[in-house]
Structures are given as C-alpha cells and as structure tokens.
Amino acid sequence: MWDRFAASDPGLLRLTAGLRTVSAIALTLVVLVLLDTDVTHLVAGAMTAMTATFAIKDTLVRDQAITLALGLPVALAATSLGALLADQVIAGDAFFVALIFGAVYCRRFGDRGTALGLIGFQIYFLSLFVGAATSSLPTLCLALAIGFGCSAVVRFAVVPETPRRVLNRLRDAFRTRVAQLVSIQIELLDAGPEQLEKVLDDMRRHTARLHETALMIQGRLEEGTEDADKAALLQRRVADAEIATERLGMLLLNARSAERADTLTLHLPHAPVPLTGDWRPAEDDATMALRRDLKALHLLVGRTASNDGGTGVAHLRNRLLGYRDEEGLPPAPAGIQDAFRGIGEAARSVLGLRLALDGPQDESDDSPATTRSREEFDAEDIALASSEESGEEDRTGLQRPTTRAAFQVSVGSVLAIIGGELLSAQRWYWAVLTCWVVFLNTASTGEILVKGYRRLLGTLLGAVAGVVLAGLVGDRTWVAFALVLVFIFAMFFTAPLSYAVMSFFVTAMLGLLYTLLNSYSFDVLVLRIEETAIGAACGIIAAVLVLPVHTDRRTDELLGTVLDRLGDVASASVEQLSGGPASDLLSKARGLDTALDDLRESTGPLTYPITPLRGRRQTVRYLVALLETCAYHARALAATAELVPHSKTVAADPRLQRAGQRIAHNIEVLAAHVGDEGTGGRVRAGASIASTLRDDGSGAPPSGTVTFRVLRHLQRLDEGVVGLARPLDVPVAESAGAKGVRG
Length: 743
What we know:
The protein is mostly helical. It has 28 helices and 2 strands.
C-alpha cells in the first residue's frame, strides 16, 4: 500500500508540502497562544506561516534560507503599508495595483522573485482581511515574524527537505511505477475480451505516470546529484528503463494481435486494437514461458541490490538477459519471440538502473550475457561527458510573458477593485484575489477562462460546505482551527490534481476563519461567490483585451517547437545509427518531452469537457496522441543509437541514413506549415521505410536484429508524421506504388 501511495505521489512532494504547511501553522498557533494573543492575530500568524511556507520554491536549502530571510522585511513592509493606507481609499487602491504589477513582473527573476512577489501580495491582502490598523501594527508585525520563524523551523528542522532526499524518493517511485506497469502487462497477457478495454486503459494510465515520474527525476538531477557525470548517467538509465518498459507493452500487444498493433493504442483512449479471433488467453508452452518470465522481470524490478538474497535472482536475471542474444528463445511465432527479446531489453535496463542507483554489485554468478551487458554499461560510463544545454534567447519588452502578464493582471485588478467595491466596500479585495489567482501559472486566454471557471465552481461548492461547517462548529475555536488545518493540508495535497477541488477547500476554510473572526453570516459567503465571479470576469476581460495571447497562437508556437525538436531527435538518432558522430541524444529527447508536455498543457482549454467545439476537441486530442506516438518512437531510436558507440552487439548501418530522409523532409514541411512560412511544400507518403533498403539489393534485415527494430520504429515514426498532415491540413503527395499509410 505504501508503494502504491509513493507511486501516486512521486517524491512525496504533495504529502511533504501539506505536512510542512500544516506543521508551520500549528507551531505558529502554539507560540502565539503561549503569548496570549487574540484570535485576530492568531489568524494573521497562521496565514503568514502558510504564505511563508508555500511561496518558497527554491531547490537548494541555502537559497530557501536566503529567500525566507528576504521575505520577512517584504512582509513587514507590506503589512505596514496596508495599515497606513487603510483609510486612504484612492492611495491604497493605487498602491495595491502597483504591488500587483511588481509581484507579477518579478517572476522574470526566477523562483526568488516569484516568492517575494507572492509574499508581498499575500501579506498585503492579509492586512485587508484582518483589518490591520496602525494601533495594532506592533502586535501584528510580531505575529508575522513568529509565522516566518516557525516556517523556518519546520522547513529546516521538523520537515527538512534536500534535493538529494527528493531525488531518492523520486527514484523509488520510478522503480515502483515500472513494477506497476509490468504488472499491468502481465494482466494484458491473461486478459479475456471482456477485460481488454479496462486493461488497456490501465496500461495507458500507468505508462503516462511512468513518463511523468521520469520527467520529474530529470528536473531534479542537477540539484540532487553533486557529480554532473553521475546525473547524466542516471538520466540515461531512467530513459532506458522507461523506453524498454513501454516498448515491452507494445510487443505484448503485438504478440496477441493479428497484425502489428497501432501505437496509438497506448496514447489515444478507445483506439481500435487489431485482435486475433476471440482474444482468448493462450495456454501453449511459449505463452506460459512468457508469463513466467514477465513475473520474473517484475521480481527483478521490485528488488533492490540490498535484498537480492542468494543466487536465485541472479539466475533469473541471467536467463532474461540471454534473450537479447537469442539465447534460450522458445520455438514460437515471431510476435511471441519479439516479446521475449523485449523482456531481455527490459531486464538490461533494470540492471543498468540498479548499477546507477545502488552502485557495483556481486558479479560471481554472472552469465556471459550479463557480463556483456555490464561491459556495455562500463563503456558508456567512461564515454559520458557533461554537457550544458544552451539557453534560449529571452524575449524583451512586451513580448516577455512576465511583462505582458503584469500589465494584464494590473488592468484586471483595477476592474476588479471597481466591481468589487460596487458589491461591498469592506470585502472588495476578494475580487482582486480571484483576478490575481486566475493569472497564476497561465499563459493564454483559454487557460485563464478555464481556471476562472474552476475557481468559481470550487468556490460555489466550498461556500455551501462553509455554511454547514460554520453552523456545526459554532463558537468552538479550537475545533475550527483543527478543521482549518485539515482543509489546508487537503488544499496543498490536491492542488496539483484539481484546481476546482483546491478552491473548494480554500473557500470552506475561509468560512471557518470568518467564524473565528466573528464575522460569519450567510450573506458573507454569498458575497464571496459574487466577488469571485466578478474577479474571474475581470481577469478574463483583461486577458482578452490587454495584450492577449490567444490559445490558438500559443498552441501553434508550442506545436512548432515540438516539431523542431522531434526533427532534431530523429535526425541525430539516424545519423548516429548510420555511423555518424555521437551526440547527446537523451538530452535532445528530454527537450522533446518537455516541449510536448508544454503543448499538452496549453491544449487543455481546447479539450476541456465543457468546450462547445466538440469536433475541434477530438482533432486536438488526436493530434496530441499522434505526437506522443512519434515522441515514443523518437525516444526509442535515441536509446538504440546511444548504444552504438559502446555495444558489442549493436553496430551502425550506413543504409539507415537514406531511410530517415523522408521523415526529416516531412517534419520540416509540417513545421513550416505551422509556422505559416508559406513554403507550399507537401508531405511525402510512399512505400514502407524498409523498401528503401531493399532498393539497393541488400534485402530486408531479418527479424530480431537491431536494424530491423530501428526500421520498425522509423516506419511507425514515418506513419505518425504523415498522419499529422491530416489534422494540420497539409497536402500529402503519394508516390508511385505507395501503400496506404495508417494515420
């Protein structure tokens, strides 16, 4: 059960965030109670501790301490100005808008600038919420200082967090998710026709989660690993394990299919699967051996080097690794034998992951196949060299996202102040808060619209819960504080999963805070909903009218980036597979994955369930699924090409250079079309990629060879790239004798 939980929360990041915030608030409340502070300042100290904890996102502990130290004077200045300007309506509103502009603009300076801007805004808002006055300013500042101090104690002593510790937990989560995916693949082998759709859905979900964890690990490598070469090594091993496990799922699907299964099956829900007969689990000797070896692979994945226990595990590992060299393959159809080879590749990736995570191991029971795999890893380790990615040129002026967002949110805040004060002269700031929040972590008008809708929905449901809870709690102060802590934990734990759910807990918590401040009434919570609606509307109006970034334009920019990086990975991989110079292919593949994740996030408004454009939603989902399929095959090509300089069994094949030319051309045409460069080019669709090798009289490579595997990935990549032409409305030129291309 713990493994399942750890896998569902990679690195325990959500759990840690919730525990740290709740602990900081609880410690602050204890200290303030010991100082005999009134309820208003208890609330102020608790909200300050919450802000000081969640605002800081620096990775290194030293940077966290510096940001926290700088945040205290910012908070004291914000609350002091809030108290001094409380009676100056025009000056107070003008300063609030200027503060909002500065807080958003400061995001351009990275995590520290974002944190300080967020602290300044939140503490100023807090001064409005508790009604700060100059007479109570010393006590309020003391409560703020205690909140910051307790946040520091919890962050650095009670719930400490270091990059290395996070990385270690992420690696454990990755290992668990690999094991979970192998378990689903075993279910796929045994599934009957009635269970097939459910098993495929599970496999899609676990494959996506494995990929998510791999990206999280890559994002933490630089800070969590002192040695740059070791970080590069771990990145390579994680990528190998991800690709090998994902590929094994496709091979198992092929083994049970009448023809090669379309890779869209793993990326597009409800994609049709070519089946054999009635899809009944086979019970022949080869299938039984396949089931046995899948269970053996699951055992290898789940065990660390420290609990191998005897020679039994080494025997299993040796047998599985032998399949890579055609050792012990049972007589069976080609699809079944490919699945055994896939198990061998997955076992090799598990061995590499163990060496990277656990260090050198006992080699006394190694077979020749295992020894060869270790020698390949040693050669890769020696050849590793640190490389730094070149940063992209930053935009300037109003083209910079932070500058544009600062102007947008400032205009929206002015509208929210006007609209909010028309509703309530005392609680107008709720509209400003909503306007501010809908602009956080959004980059297009569509994203702001969806976030505003989710905020309003969560607020509406939370207000109902607040009414019920406030009535039940009554004047029981500590019961209310206990529920507030529960809701804050739930708020941070669910924030990455659902913004609407997080908004629900925020609003329910605020209902309890109003109860503590003796200002609760049904009218107040209704006003909260109205102010939220005003703030969301003002944010949307500002996003549409002030320097708008339309969703279509943003997705086109990101789509062009994805295509460019896809072309880079494919071309560099084919060049290295053809005997060209070695390059850092996995870094290129990581860049492709990052760009694809950005595109997937930006298309969220277009695929949202309530969107009225149903046909467009299906087109976008299909386009993203095709790109995910292309990225999968590009990663597989990169992983295979990485073996060429070091492996004794994987050799370069110069014929592959010609095989990849059509793919490179088609990607260039698609990228030019998306970039609206007006080239008028056409996508070339022709006979299979393998036919380019047969044209020179050499014939197709035999099944099971590396060249055959590469050609299979090239063929699928070619089909995926040509398939992108239809949703992008790019003309396709069929060559003579062309076969139908599956899109």
